[in-house]
Write a structure and sequence with these properties.
Oligomer: single chain
Shape: elongated
Number of domains: 4
Helix content: 25-40%
Strand content: 5-15%
Mean pLDDT: 85
Number of strands: 22
Protein name: CxC5 like cysteine cluster associated with KDZ domain-containing protein
Length: 633
């Protein structure tokens, strides 16, 4: 039986050439189990049952026993011919265009399509690039192949395609769902979708920062592949992974909550481009968030108690996630016509001294360094004056409230501002967040009003009932200022909640007379709107955020905002019980309410213009602000 041809014919004659490799593989896998656990007869019967089911055949136990005996007698021949286990010890290099790939071990990442999605022409070769793909426990070498459509001036890759003309990268539902489960955009690193989802789970369950997660990944890779771990630099890998995770989840966020089938992102991972993209898109993302989550009650088969799910909103502020911010205060928001102008403070992170420039002030951001000589427009100067005037008038009216009730909120800051005051968020009684805003300034009535009006403007379906731990001051604030220049009466302000009450926990500490009567949740004037609701939904939601305070503190604007948005969105999905990786869910129910993409003006664009002598100076270029990797806690 030394002749290979004769031996193959003998093996194949038992059951045929098609089932033969299948039986050989099963025999090899089962033969490693000791006979004391899996007897020879039981092993033969298991193979018989499996092969008959797989090939719709009726082989007898005798036929299978003869074949397995022959396999056992010629095990080396079977291993070499059918299983080819020796291929794992050899390299087979193939040159594809200008790059060489080990075809047996390296990954080949082809474009997600062979034809242009617009003109349907066959794509032609453009370029290849060798990259590393990071998984949770290993690093894989891969060759990514890029193809182009010369007619449309597009370059297609594995997970996206790029418009050379517009310098934009586009992702559709086909490119995001890679058969190889790999997400690759540009540069030298890609990531498996498994490791991206692993971090999502770590974030949701244990509020893990990016730094800690990447340390774990590198430790695991070092354990599994000690020869490659030294090639990965921790800080660089963390920054790239952070960008990939943000973009991957933003893409799915838009797919789920938007009504388009394609998402546009920057064509590179350049930090300044990503920051501009996030700020320009933040208003539209907030619109999608508000539209969907304020109306989630109508979704079928959700975990929420639909009776009390959206009866009211519980508004509260959370300060433990406060982060470093610029001390410059004279920054205003003029986008809400009903409030004319309101001070919001500068959201950007202070600069840090570098070897290239140690003369900067570390309590101001790059835009508000005294050496920059900013010149705000006349309209913005007037808006700033109005905002200061309105704040003073509101402060004067608040003096009376302070003497009547021991609980109040004040927009005015009497201390040096170096950190935010966390963020504000309204919750449904079911625990779903329907909005959010970073509280750069202190939590006050004008700040609360701005947040509610902003949510309404962006499409939030606002209930007519509101719970707040300082609802008495808010009610009196609205009664005094609605209908004035400080708070114009419009169709937007008419959508503000009409029934306002103190939650039971905080109501006991209030001393004003109305706090003990009409501001109570069970007062008859509220017509039962607060009966049976979980008034502590915001506090419960903040317990999740509090555990992630170190992650949120260490992000600079605008990453801090998008990180908070994604965390609340992912948490909402888990509360309601829906899969965050689906396309077109919101448009299925709320298509008429969803707007097309719109740009939001960046905050820094309202600051004014620089002195011509200061524009694009080297000093400005080398200024660095704190970010998630450099801030120490």
């Amino acid at each position: 039986m030394s002749d290979s041809n004769n031996l193959f014919e003998i093996l194949a004659s038992c059951i045929g050439p098609a089932p033969l490799p299948y039986v050989c593989r099963m025999y090899m896998d089962l033969s490693i189990i000791p006979s004391s656990i899996l007897s020879s007869d039981l092993r033969t019967r298991t193979i018989q049952k499996a092969v008959n089911e797989r090939f719709k055949s009726q082989f007898t136990i005798g036929q299978i026993r003869i074949l397995t005996n022959l396999i056992a007698m010629n095990i080396h021949f079977v291993r070499n011919i059918f299983l080819m286990d020796d291929l794992s010890y050899i390299n087979l290099s193939v040159k594809i265009y200008h790059s060489t790939i080990d075809i047996l071990h390296d990954l080949l990442l082809l474009p997600f399509t062979n034809t242009c999605i617009y003109c349907q022409q066959i794509l032609t070769f453009y370029d290849t690039k060798m990259i590393h793909v990071i998984d949770y426990s290993k690093v894989m070498e891969a060759m990514t192949v890029m193809m182009e459509c010369k007619s449309c001036n597009l370059i297609y890759g594995h997970s996206s395609f790029v418009s050379v003309k517009n310098r934009r990268r586009y992702i559709n539902q086909h490119s995001i769902n890679s058969p190889k489960k790999i997400f690759y955009l540009c540069d030298s690193l890609g990531f498996t979708t498994s490791v991206l989802y692993d971090y999502t789970c770590q974030l949701m369950n244990h509020q893990s920062p990016f730094n800690a997660f990447i340390h774990t990944v590198l430790d695991r890779i070092s354990y599994e592949q000690s020869d490659v771990s030294h090639c990965l630099e921790h800080i660089y890998l963390t920054k790239v992974f952070q960008s990939y995770w943000f973009l991957y989840n933003i893409v799915w966020f838009e797919f789920m909550l938007g009504k388009g089938t394609m998402v546009s992102i920057p064509d590179s991972l350049n930090r300044s481009e990503l920051e501009q993209y996030i700020e320009n898109s933040s208003g539209w993302w907030y619109h999608l968030f508000s539209i969907f989550w304020s109306r989630h009650k109508v979704l079928p088969n959700i975990k929420c108690n639909t009776i009390n799910c959206s009866k009211c909103i519980i508004v509260d502020g959370h300060q433990k996630s406060k982060r470093l911010v610029c001390e410059y205060k004279n920054v205003v928001d003029t986008t809400i016509d009903e409030m004319t102008s309101i001070e919001i403070g500068c959201p950007y992170t202070p600069c840090r001294k570098t070897k290239a420039n140690d003369s900067i002030l570390t309590n101001f951001c790059r835009y508000h360094q005294p050496s920059n000589n900013l010149f705000p427009s006349s309209e913005m100067q007037k808006a700033c004056q109005l905002a200061v005037e309105y704040a003073q008038r509101d402060q004067q009216s608040l003096e009376d409230h302070k003497t009547q009730c021991s609980n109040y909120r004040d927009d005015s800051e009497q201390i040096r501002k170096s950190r935010t005051f966390g963020f504000l968020a309204p919750y449904h009684p079911c625990g779903v967040s329907i909005g959010f805003v970073e509280a750069i300034k202190a939590e006050g009535m004008r700040s609360i009003t701005r947040h509610l009006l902003r949510s309404i403007i962006h499409g939030c379906q606002m209930p007519d009932a509101l719970l707040y731990d300082c609802a008495c001051t808010l009610k009196l604030h609205w009664q005094k200022w609605i209908g004035t220049d400080m708070l114009k009466l419009t169709n937007i302000t008419r959508q503000l909640p009409r029934y306002i009450a103190l939650d039971n926990f905080h109501q006991r500490t209030h001393t004003r007379s109305i706090c003990q009567t009409v501001m109570k949740m069970d007062h008859p004037s509220h017509e039962g709107r607060f009966l049976g609701v979980n008034s502590q939904a915001a506090e419960i939601g903040f317990q999740f955020i509090a555990k992630a305070k170190y992650s949120l503190r260490n992000f600079s604007f605008p990453y801090s905002t998008v990180m908070l948005m994604l965390m609340l969105h992912l948490k909402n999905c888990r509360i309601v019980g829906i899969n965050e990786y689906q396309i077109g869910l919101s448009s299925l129910y709320f298509s008429n309410e969803i707007k097309d993409y719109f740009l939001t003006r960046r905050v820094c664009e309202t600051f004014g213009t620089f002195d011509k002598d200061d524009e694009n100076t080297e000093e400005f270029d080398v200024i660095e602000d704190y970010n998630e990797l450099t801030t120490e806690e």
